[in-house]
TrEMBL record, chains A, B:
Name listed for the protein in its UniProt record: Magnesium transporter MgtE
PANTHER family registered for this protein in UniProt: MAGNESIUM TRANSPORTER MGTE (PTHR43773)
Database matches in SMART domains: CBS, MgtE_N
Organism encoding this protein: Fredinandcohnia quinoae
Transmembrane segments: 291-312, 318-344, 365-386, 392-418, 439-457
Encoding gene, per UniProt annotation: mgtE
Length: 458, 458
């Protein structure tokens, strides 16, 4: 009930807002709009028609629009269109009012000329901060950090630290951690606001600060940053360069987005699809995202077919062999996908970092052998009961046993090699491994069949 | 460099800690141990031998052990062993010192008798809180919330609110949001600590509190809670019952764990494996996690084989048909997995909530048709060039076209139906859909082949 009412109320407000926009009723619109949560404002804005948005820009200040854009979730290619509807100086004002990291996210979706022209008309301080952040490579700590943090010195009292904190609060992205730096901006310590407010005013910062600060390097991978923040339960983490200078901070809300992004990225790749998460508005855009993989796999499948083609003579003599091709191929594909998933996740979570890779592969081979043995024995039994042909059962069973070992090894080996070559191991998608293992299974199956041939022809 | 030094230092400290434990050097141990981050303490503890842990318990207070257990990441079945090493009153003390939600997480891994006996010897207040939380169903907001929040009334001044905040800070799990309640504990508003500290002391709470509080219902799914906190960028969210009573809060660190859990759960299921994330120490435990799926898929594959068996006569006449079985099966499996992944993610992120499910299926069918048409034409060309047989190419091409439509539909339909039936749609794993689609593709391929028969026999 609660949930429904909440939703209904929001729906009602959205209708009132649209009405106010159409009626050009600025006061009603502003009162209502500024009352709802920034996330709702951004959602409302993103769903408007272009015409309605043009009205809205006249009703809101650049600062108010900045909050909308900080919460906006639209497709990458839409930013250019949305910004082009506004006056360039309005955009520049808006960008300089946004948190630097969010402004950088927006600018990263534009072409270089547009970025340069907005930066030119922006106020110098904001432009300087943004220019610095634009330099960092995508997916690194630098690319998601912000420069709006609160810093103090260790020879201050808690009282003066609180004074600085209150002064900086309106600009800072978080005030829940305060970073202690020395004269050269080296990171020296950290204090949580929690510690500050429960400590006596006259206490020196140096007495209560933690001097073992968990920090990340500016070039560190964003997934690594997320892992650290998760492990250490941090609401923000300082970003430093190799000389321990404090460059910025990364807040937990950005890390939640990173985690979401990385998880859906791994998921997409396992499913063999370019991006599972942007909603497809048309079948054409959906087809576009899936077709590249399908075509690659089609040609791999053709390779597979030509391989079986070599055994056409064998198949003409013993047609029943064809019956078990999908079973063996399927089992090798499934077991390969399982091994792949375990290894890709293990690499992502860092669980394999200290492990001997050779031992890891051996463990996978033994795992494949155990599963192969059990499945193989099951198959021998079932085929014997079903077809009454012990040698056929033995052939299929042994094939399953051998392919499961090889397929498990392949599923583990491919991502490990990719990781070694500094390629994202998740690129070795499930369908890719499945199709490769299909190939391997055919070679094993028909190879064994050729050996058994005299037993199979009755 | 930085990273390496940090790691080396930690390694050194771990060695010193172990040495201090062995030498029973309590002072050295405590100084060093309490200096490292609670996460490092928990990691150190979890890697100790049982003997070493027995030493450690004598060196630390229940309160200090509580912090270790709050940060502990061990296998579910290990909790019982670890706790059984300690004195029961020590365990009870420790549990009552932990945040209630973390204590509940530990107790949930024990059997009912053990839980009851610990609760009996625990102090009444902590036992009461924990008992309440133990009632909530797994995966709901109630099961991950904690009762340690700060609440104030609206007719207070900021000064008195800050006074309460400082008093409650040591117990509260977060003090960065303060919740405003009325006499009957109805949730009336929220203030961030940020707002409190920048506001004049004499201001009334009612003037600055936000009265549109984003909250979650106690029975809401934890994934839903995570989505809300992500969308609204919250560090904590209040949990209410259907009458708007404040029951507890959920903090962002718990939500990060939920997101991680849910993502790896979806990933595991797509790969057809029970749990991709716990590291396998032996091939036997690895095989155990993967075998159930493999055996199910083996029997589905057998069904598939028996289906092809019906066409043995056809195969004897036209052996070349067998060559394309894996290609067609593989393509249908791949496209089905893609559709499955898109729909499972769409359901998880709530993107399909307002959408007409029939239109969604239609869109998938058209997507399948577009991909099928392109892949089908490619196949006709390749087979014609390769085998010089136009009718064979046409048969395989049309089969690809039809199977891609049906397989895409199946991939989308199965998770939608499961969601409708309130089953987690991710249960329809990739390998499952792949194997089902294998079956479908065989029927289509051999069905069409029977129609084309006269053209195929030369």
């Amino acid at each position: 009930m609660q949930e429904l009412n909440e939703k209904e109320q929001l729906q009602l407000e959205v209708e009132q807002l649209i009405q106010a926009l159409e009626d050009e009723n600025i006061d009603t619109f502003r009162t209502l709009f500024l009352e709802i949560h920034p996330y709702e404002r951004a959602k409302f804005y993103s769903k408007l028609s272009s015409d309605a948005r043009m009205h809205l820009y006249r009703f809101l200040s650049p600062t108010e629009m900045a909050e909308v854009f900080e919460n906006l979730e639209i497709e990458e290619n839409e930013y250019e269109d949305f910004l082009s509807e506004m006056d360039p100086t309005f955009v520049a004002d808006m960008l300089s009012q946004m948190y630097a990291d969010d402004a950088v996210d927006v600018l990263n979706e534009l072409n270089k000329d547009q970025v340069a022209s907005y930066l030119t008309i922006m106020d110098d301080e904001a432009a300087g901060e943004i220019k610095q952040l634009l330099h960092y490579e995508e997916y690194t700590a630098g690319s998601i950090m912000t420069t709006e943090y609160v810093a103090i010195h260790s020879n201050q009292t808690v009282k003066s630290a609180m004074y600085i904190l209150k002064r900086e609060a309106p600009q800072a992205e978080t005030i829940y951690y305060v970073y202690v730096i020395d004269e050269e901006k080296h990171l020296a310590g950290v204090i949580s606001l929690r510690d500050l407010i429960v400590t006596d005013d006259d206490t020196m910062v140096s007495e209560i600060m933690g001097d073992r600060v968990v920090s990340v390097s500016v070039s560190e991978d964003q997934e690594e940053v997320a892992r650290k923040m998760k492990d250490y339960n941090l609401l923000a983490v300082p970003v430093i360069d190799f000389q321990n200078h404090l460059l910025g901070i990364i807040t937990v809300d950005d890390i939640i987005d990173v985690m979401d992004e990385e998880a859906s990225d791994d998921y997409s790749k396992l499913a063999g699809i370019s991006d599972v998460d942007s909603v497809d508005k048309s079948p054409i855009s959906a087809a576009k995202k899936r077709l590249p993989w399908l075509v690659i796999l089609l040609f791999l499948g053709m390779l597979n077919a030509s391989l079986i083609g070599h055994f056409e003579g064998t198949l003409e003599k013993v047609a029943i062999l064809a019956v078990f091709i999908p079973l063996i191929g399927g089992m090798s594909g499934n077991t390969g996908t399982q091994a792949l998933a375990v290894v890709v996740r293990g690499i992502a979570t860092g669980d394999f970092e200290d492990e001997n890779k050779f031992l890891l592969l051996m463990r996978e081979a033994v795992t494949g052998a155990i599963n192969g043995l059990i499945c193989g024995i099951l198959v021998i039994g079932v085929v014997f009961i079903w077809k009454g042909d012990f040698f056929l059962g033995l052939l299929v069973g042994i094939s399953i046993f051998v392919t499961l070992i090889v397929a498990t090894l392949a599923g583990a080996f491919v991502p490990l090699i990719m990781h070694k070559l500094k390629v994202d191991p998740a690129v070795a998608s499930g369908p890719f491994i499945t199709t490769i293992n299909d190939l391997i299974s055919i070679i094993i199956y028909f190879g064994l069949a050729s050996l058994f041939m005299s037993y199979l022809i009755h």
